[in-house]
Amino acid sequence: MVSTEQFGEFETSWCPGCGNFSIVKCLKQALADMDLAPHDILVSSGIGQAAKLPHYMLCNMFNGLHGRSMPVAQGMKMALPDMPVLCVSGDGCSYGEGGNHFLAALRRNMDLTLLVHDNQIYGLTKGQASPTSSRGHVTKAQPEGSRSDGFNPVATAVAMRASFVARAFSGEQDHLVSVIKEAVNHKGFSLVDILQPCVSFNKVNTYAWYKERTYILEDHDPTDWTAAMTLSEEFGERIPLGVIYREDKPVFGHGERLAEHKYDKNDLKAVLQSYT
Amino acid sequence: MSKQSLNIVIGGAAGQGLATIGRLLSKAVVRAGYHLLVTQKYMSRVRGGHNTFAVRLGTEPLLSGTETIDVLAALNEETLDKHSEELAKNALVVAGDDLDTKDRNALRIPFKELAPKPLFYNIVVLGVLAGAIRLDISILEELLTQTFGKKGDEILQGNLDVLRKAYDWVAEQDHEFGFDGTPKAGKGRMMVNGNEAIALGALAAGCNFVSFYPMTPATSVALSLIGKGAPLGLQYEQVEDEIAAVNMALGASYAGAKALVTTSGGGFALMEEGISLAGVSETPLVCVVVQRPGPATGMATRTEQSDLNLVVYAGHGEFPRAVFAPSDPEECFYLTHRAFDLTETYQTPVFVLSDQYLADSYRDEELFDLDGLPEIAAPLLEWKEDEYKRYALTDDGVSPRLIPGYSEALVRADSHEHDESSRITENAENRTVQNSKRLRKETGLFEEVIGPDYYGEEGADVVLMSWGSTLGACLEACERIDSKKTFGVLHFKQVYPLREEQFMDYLESAGKVIAVEGNATAQFAQLVARETGFFAQDRILRFDGRAMTWEYVLKGLTEIL
Ligand SMILES: Cc1ncc(C[n+]2csc(CCOP(=O)(O)OP(=O)(O)O)c2C)c(N)n1
Ligand code: SF4
Q1: Which CATH superfamily is domain B191-365 in?
Q2: Nearest in space to B314 (alpha carbons), one of B274, B284, B352, B286
Q3: What is the pTM (predicted TM-score) of this model?
Q4: Which among A127, A153, A202, B483 is placed 20 to 30 Å from A81, CA to CA?
Q5: Which CATH architecture has domain A4-273?
Q6: Which residues does chain A have within 8 Å of residue B232's beta carbon, measured at their own beta carbons?
Q7: CATH 3.40.50.920 intervals, chain B
Q8: Structure confidence by residue, pLDDT tens digits, B309-349
């Protein structure tokens, strides 16, 4: 059995009280529960406070560029198709800088899990509006309030019939653990949008703000697309948590590990012959 | 017209099928045992415009394209108008009988008589051209059988009948044209263009992953790789943009794939941050950049050598790299293989820099030698020692590369500055140590540099300094120039890094050095100057979007000398 201790304890550069702490804790718990050890998984991340997560936990990792964790994760999956691949990222990273990759990944449907720490703000660059900040959200860079509508990743993913779409909250730890496990076990692309309070820069979407609004879904059928669409629009007075939508779809992939793949020289000779 | 070589130009609008005629004719020419050199010019449109497919065939190896036309096959009026100046004396014009060939030595084809449907007009032109140059018809029949055989007997027979009719029709016509070159190249040769040869070199090196976003003229590298490699297990994806392409390839490479990305200038500009990531994360990657004229969208289907600076200086921060610039398909093959060898050995990005002219230029080649290729360094799949450190300090700067998923050792790659165990750190001493470690790989790369080739007598009066696809034009110009002076060509197929001791003697002992490049600012001459302090005295530069030809070099030489 894998224990959470195997993932190590590290000093972080996160602010005391940040929602990221419980996310890394829940992730370790979920992996241990699934009996996945640090060397059993691949983690891809971008740049931002959230994206530093694999530095604060033992695992195989590729910590790459801002917004680019999804392409890296998909490359990993294509080369090591039998390994569970996780992608850890912030809302700016996934939905802003990497927005195009997010949309393409939904369509491509590889078997991997995207965990987005959605604090509705840019943390690492000190508090500018992010794609998920609501219209009117005031920051130093948006002194008159954000002039754009907030991006709704859950509704977008459901609208595109992504294979697995869930929302969780870092303040609901047991629920978060179970959602991560479900997402990793799901065959196909899984999105978990995790509401994560940024105590330093987001004075609007605080712990209290999320606590007051979020509720855990009880009898929702995630295979009902119309119901999922309606639920995914619910982000205001009430915010549903749980698996919003699930659909079994063809998964992009193959069986062979590319490190072991070698061409037969005779096959290559036949390829050359085809040019004569 | 020279008895040894013949330049057949097929011209028409996009959508008229001239590339099909050109490719079939080229293949037949190679199978007949001639040497071949194709130059394609096309416009960025799917239908219409003016395109040409020039097939130069010869009894001796051909060095470059030529501007003088011996046979002009005009699929439309515009072709006749545009190329009348380039026709050789006694050139043969082949055109439909509805076009006015202006009393030139012509074969005016009665298409309606020779073919039942316009669908077959391509084959008529092919048959007429083959008849005019007296190509053995059985070669063409076999070729058509291979090409159309899959489409059913009826379609195949239709094509064969039309071919024969057109071929025989030529024999009855009155025209003054003859070509009596005896083929000498031998049988069983390949017909490949630069991009295909890059794909083949990659496959030969074990490349099993390609991610790309389509961009002319690079797309066919990926298409050839997929076409030939996918049935053999290559994984591929056409991704959402070039940024995804490079990052996906890095993810795959980290996880054990032999990865390649391919693009042209604009796409490469988008890839730069990812190239820098390959540098700091020490992830092997071969990047093929097929140049076209810039800036920005420039001329999408034309050629230029103006992205040398972009590639040599690509990415932010400092990290080692190597850049190859093949001059022909054979070098495309061997240098791409070499690029994989270096990237796997040194775990830093390696580039193959080609251009549209070379990309689309078919040549006849000896079958590439798979047995003679060196083994390529392989990453580790097992780790039995103590703690695995992805960025362990070593004398040569190369750390043991382990693939995750095979052992309990964790493989941690990082874009930040990191210590030996991949922990993020801003420690000043560590930064110096890690950056120096990465740059130490330059010593190994430097020792492996392939020096330039020198053609001609050492200490010639005039030395042409070329790189990439311009070699043939330089050599042919030197062969043809009528001058008392002596000439030499110093040609670079690896353009970075440069190793002074491999070539300074040639430059210093030359009477005069002329840089020949397909760009407006002599980028390579400037690079040589930066690295060696030697500045070429003169330049022949072409940046009108067209390939360097021997005529262009000759004209430049005459002006300078
Ligand atoms: C190409 C690029 N642009 C900008 C940055 C600067 N940058 C780093 S993190 C970040 C935003 C982080 O916000 P988010 O992804 O929401 O993560 P958080 O820090 O809130 O967890 C930005 C803009 C960068 N590193 N790279
Ligand atoms: S800035 Fe915000 S998101 Fe970042 S660590 Fe601090 S509280 Fe967390």
Answers
A1: Thiamin diphosphate (ThDP)-binding fold, Pyr/PP domains (3.40.50.970)
A2: B274
A3: 0.97
A4: A153
A5: 3-Layer(aba) Sandwich (3.40)
A6: 263-264, 267-268, 271
A7: 453-560
A8: 999 999 999 999 999 999 999 999 999 999 999 999 999 99
